[in-house]
Amino acid sequence: MIGYISDNILLPILDFFYGLVPSYGLAIVALTVVIRLALFPLSAGSIRSARRMRIAQPAMKKRQDEIKSRYAKDPQKQQEELGKVMKEFGNPLSGCLPLLVQMPILFALFATLRGSPFADVPYLVNLKVLPSDQIAAIEPKPFTSSKHSIFISETKHFPVIASLPSGTKLGVGDKAQIKLQTLTGESFTSRLSGVEGGTKFTPTWSVTKGDDLVKVSADGTVQALAEGDATVQGKIPGLAAQSGFLFIKALGQVGFYVDGEINWDIAILVGGFGLTLLVSQVLSGRGLPANPQQSTANKITPVMITGMFLFFPLPAGVLLYMVIANIFQAGQTFLLSREALPENLQKILNDQLSKPALATEAIGGSDRLPFEPKKRSK
After folding, report:
1. Phi, psi of 268, deg, nearest 5
2. Residues near 302 by Cβ (< 8 Å), separated by ≥ 6?
3. Is the peptide bond before 117 cis (omega within 30 degrees of 0)?
4. How high is the pLDDT of residue 293?
5. What is the three-class DSSP state of 145?
6. Calpha distance 209→9 (Å, rounded)
7. How far apart are the C-alpha atoms of 19 and 11, rounded to whole Å?
């Protein structure tokens, strides 16, 4: 499903925006906004449900505890009354359904931005090298990788797979060629022969695991040297992997700290992600009673996630999407925080907000400090 959404929905939208403004950075921004607008009703439902549950939870829990205590010996009546509470306040899990529905689209968008044209596309083939006398008894099972859409021009792309007709099990001394080809079986390199500047998309081959067990040539031919498990990688360069945008040096660039140098554009993107996430979380509590535990979590979570993404290998294009998506989310949260609540929840919220004020008024109305002992009357 993720591949279908990417190939048939997201990439055509990307092509459209790149046709309007020939900038892959702007195309990422436009694609992000379009997807977030399309998902607005679903994400709004989640935000709305979370806000209402945060208000209703104390009263809801109190009612549930009372019902469980009152009808402890009558399970049927207990379930009936608990159902009435759910109907009155809503189901706490109702906000999860919109999130589950939009997850495939978000995963597809994430996968699209991690692939061509924004980044180099790797094809990994895991091999097992066996003794030559054992391989004859094993029935070959052809290997085919997942497909990836490869851009060979600004608007021309097609799916490419890696295949190994003889299978991933080789005998010591055997040779086999890993083929990159289209879904119709046409060689990828033959498709490049008719493209201007097509040689810059020529795949490179390397052994990422077990370089003492196998070796691979420039055309993807693998030779088995010794028994064991090995991994061979073929990588197709991304068309826009080296394209810059604003302060970003390359949309396909990965890593905050590479080869002893700090990539400040990655650092800025990660910092922007953390800041926008913090703003979104602060806005989610706007107009609600203070919750010390929630407040602490809202401060710690952005710091932890931001720290993780400093060293998590994500391309700059993906980080750009995450920052824009967070800005959109913060704006959506701000708008929904101003939305009128149902009458029963508004009454509960008013009561919650008035409690700290009453406590302050009680203290302020006294002539003494809260920790000062009362004066004895003479």
Report:
1. -65, -40
2. 274, 275, 277, 278, 281
3. yes
4. 59
5. coil
6. 36
7. 12
The better pLDDT of the pair 132, 244 is held by 132
> 220 — alpha (psi -120 to 50), left (phi > 0) or beta?
left
pLDDT tens-digit readout, 108-157? 777 777 777 777 888 898 988 888 878 777 777 888 888 888 888 776 78
Cβ burial of 125 (10 Å; 0-12, 13-18, 19+) is buried
Phi–psi pair at 338, nearest 5 degrees? -95, 0
Q: What's this model's pTM, rounded to 2 decimal places?
A: 0.63
- Does residue 264 contact residue 310 with C-beta atoms inside 8 Å? no
CA distances (Å), origin 248, targets 93, 253, 311: 40, 9, 17
* Single-letter amino acid code for the residue at 24: Y
Confidence band, pLDDT 50/70/90 cuts, at residue 356: low
Residue 344 in tokens: 């029963």
Phi and psi of 282, rounded to 5°? -65, -40
Residue holding tokens 């797979």?
A: 161
* pLDDT score at 288: 63
Convert the pLDDT of each residue in 198-236 to its tens digit.
Answer: 778 888 899 898 888 888 888 888 888 888 888 989 888
Contacts with 230 (C-beta within 8 Å, 6 or more apart), sequence order = 126, 127, 128, 129, 207, 209, 210, 211, 213, 214
Strand ranges inside 172-311, DSSP E: 175-177, 179-182, 204-209, 214-216, 221-224, 228-236, 257-258, 261-262
Tokens standing for residue 155: 């608007």
Q: Rounded distance, CA 317 to CA 29, Å?
A: 10
The CA distance from 345 to 324, in Å, is 32
C-alpha 120/C-alpha 239 separation (Å) is: 8
* Interatomic CA distance for residues 300 and 87, integer angstroms: 34
CA–CA distance, 53 with 293 (Å, rounded to integer): 16
Which long-range contacts does 210-216 make (Cβ < 8 Å, 24+ apart)?
210/127, 213/129, 214/127, 214/129, 214/170, 216/178
Residue type, 117: P
Find, among 347, 358, 285, the residue nearest to 56 by Cα. 347
